[in-house]
Amino acid sequence: MLIVGDVVTDVVAVHPEPLAPATDTAARIRTLPGGAGANAACWAARTGAAEVRLLARVGSESARWHERALVDAGVRPRLVIDREEPTGTVVALVGKDAERTFLTDSGAALRLCPADWNPSLLDGVAHLHLSGYLFFADSSRELARVALRAARSRGVPVSVDPASAGFLITLGPRRFLDAVAGADVLLPNEDEARLLAGLPEPAGLARAAAELSRRVPLVVVTRGAAGALVAERGRITAEVAAEPADAVDSTGAGDAFTGGFLAARLAGADPAEAARAGCRTAALAVTRLGGRP
Question: Which pTM value belongs to this model?
């Protein structure tokens, strides 16, 4: 499997009490390797994918640290060194309920460009996964399109994780869906699914998932503690319960689901079985700080 996506440095701040404006709030703070694409790659390797490759762009100041972390996680990284911008940084503010709010400086991550692509990256690859963050900047969006077209020409299935409801609003749902045309699998969360389906607020999530699966053959919507919905070619085919977990930090839970789901699919699981595997992986992810195994 090849994942094209983002590697960032996560600064995770867990604050049991609400933020106190204009003064101090006690927190437990850790600096950890992260990034949606990188996290998914690490969880895919952790859950049994035989070979996971990652293409991403990082700054020179932390390239060796990130490469070592990926290799230690069982991922084969190809990190393009950006000489102008530092590695992207995400500050994750995690409240008492384990939910997180992100402050994002994309840095080098979204400066991936078609020149960073090589057709040989797909040699021996059975699946291509694209992090949705790539579609939110011009250069990385064009790289994602090049990779998607190359995969389609080889008959390699493609999945996409929309990544961010906030960035989707800025880009526009229609532009995003046009850019991912030809993908085989879409992995949105609830907010992303509703935005992309473009349905009025009263419309149910199941209808949104079903509508999206008319554009992308397989849609799996993650719903946090409510599990996941599976939609195929215009209809809901499975509703999967979440695994119980004592949540500490929800950072990277969706990435963990993606990694577990893709590893299971590559091992031959049907969509519902793969969604269950994704839920198991996400349940493990929320019990620890950060987005990696």
Answer: 0.93
